[in-house]
Fold:
Amino acid sequence: MSDFYTLLNAPRDASADDIKKAYRRLAMEYHPDRNDAPDAEARFKEITEAYEVLRDPEQRALYDRYGEAGLKGGGGGFGDFHHVDLSEALNIFMRDFGAGLGGFESIFGGQQPSVAENRRGRDVRVTIKLTLDDVANGAKRTLKLRTLETCDVCSGQGLAQGARPVACPTCSGSGQVRRATRSMFGQFVSVAPCPNCQGEGEVITEPCETCRSEGRVRGERKVTVDIPAGVADNNYLTLRGQGGAGLRNGVPGDLLVILDINEDDRFERHGDDLVIDLPLSFSQAALGETFSVPTPYGDESLKVPAGTQTGTVLRLDGKGLPRLGQSGKGDLHVRLHLWTPDKLSSEQESLFRQIAAMEGQPPQPDSGFWSKIKEALGA
Structure:
């Protein structure tokens, strides 16, 4: 294997822009659609391979230190380096330079889905309804899914018992087909997945009678979902691999669980905090009293001090909702409102008139007391 810098005619201290310019110049020279020399395709793949390594700072650092062995796993390398085929090389070229080539991308067909992507199962979406109590304490739900499941008869292979797949006659087992198109610019060659085998290189001539070569059948199963405390409306959970089965043992899809939280008439929710309204009579506000206040964890005692004004907000620490993914909880804020009766009995009216004669004038608007009332009411 030639040195990557030598392949690109670039010095070892070349900048990222210089590497890109060097590759573009050589790629345009050796591109199979512009150069029909016998070695053009091999040369094009080599320089693309070199460019793909040197354009990435981490891979370039490994290559500079260990050479190609570092890319293959030696010296602590990534271990995923491989020689590109023509389809990959064309896709890399179009990825970085296709936008400025006057329509080349439509001729090449752009990025094609891989065999693994074609085989991947579908994602499944479900919605779970929750109460505020579920949010406060967490919940567990068991879902019954009707979706595609791996065929038990052929173990997901799609083959009849004892059968084996055969090489695709259209692409001779390569999984790719090449098409040549002529235009005023010359001949263009596109490489695409084989339409007969969808890029797999193999076809099934003796399919499983149960799944008809799909490797999956319609089925039903149960999935248990653990819902953490503190979730919010329209949050969702992703359960990897719990969706529909993939084609012929392909990667299964995911299960996406959308959370729909019913409103609780007792509380207003503001993130992790809750707000509740507590009406007070004049005597309760004036004299003070202890009340039983609902929380998501049961009733709590709240002492309202004597002389409390309407609009005052008292707080119960840690009686709100859990913080998702964190420790601790929000608070419960209790808003106090003075309740005025619509009708008074003759005895009540007499008592209130006696009180009115003794209570004097209310505070003036410019007093500090009145300012506190306006602040509490948000005025």
Remarks:
- Residues 74-79, 99-110 have pLDDT under 50 and may be disordered.
